[in-house]
Structure prediction request, 222 residues.
Amino acid sequence: MDEDIPVIYGIDFQARCLVSQAAESDAVRFLIGTQSLKHENQIQLIDFDEESNAISRTVYAHPSGEVWNLSSCPFDARLFATCFNEVENSKVISKASLWQFPDKTAGAPAGDDSHNPATVPPLGKIVDFKDDDPTDTVGVVWESTASQKDVVTLKSNGIVLWDLVEGNSTVAKMKSCIPVEGKGHNRVLSGRWSPHHSNSVIGICTETSIRGIDFRTGKYVP
Prediction:
């Protein structure tokens, strides 16, 4: 009986983020975000050929620093979001931005020198998710279809709902901001849209609980 041969891919830098390219239906692709203090950080687009068991990659420069969270758009394979750290007023703050891959013709070929900035093409920053709350942004959750283009940023103390308004340039318009209430350890860790409530309810996981929030009322789901 034939056995599957394991495939190993080595990453040049430390990394803690790996997600599938959710909107890609014709190929098996993954995104990796790196964390390096000495080199410019990267988004690596990994292409796995199931027939030949071969892996190829395209490396893109991530100028905003270490990637702490990655989220792939479910309806457009070109789009993804990252969470990263920036220093403001001597404090380290985690932020989030929406990015777009450049045209394939602008990509670096497989086997490029990822340590050489001249060979690493830049990503296109679409928009920053900015609000008045300086609390850390720990994740980005996409609404599952392209009809509404709603995106939720997970803050350590709550969630923010955004509408991506397209025009000459894409603008992230804040629709609502809902804090996480309660005593004790309520730091938000992750979240997912509910598939059963017409994309109006999101479930979030904190350090001590799992909760549902209804954006139509701004209240917790019993």
The longest strand covers residues 79-88. The chain is about 0% helix and 50% strand. The two ends are 51 Å apart (CA to CA).
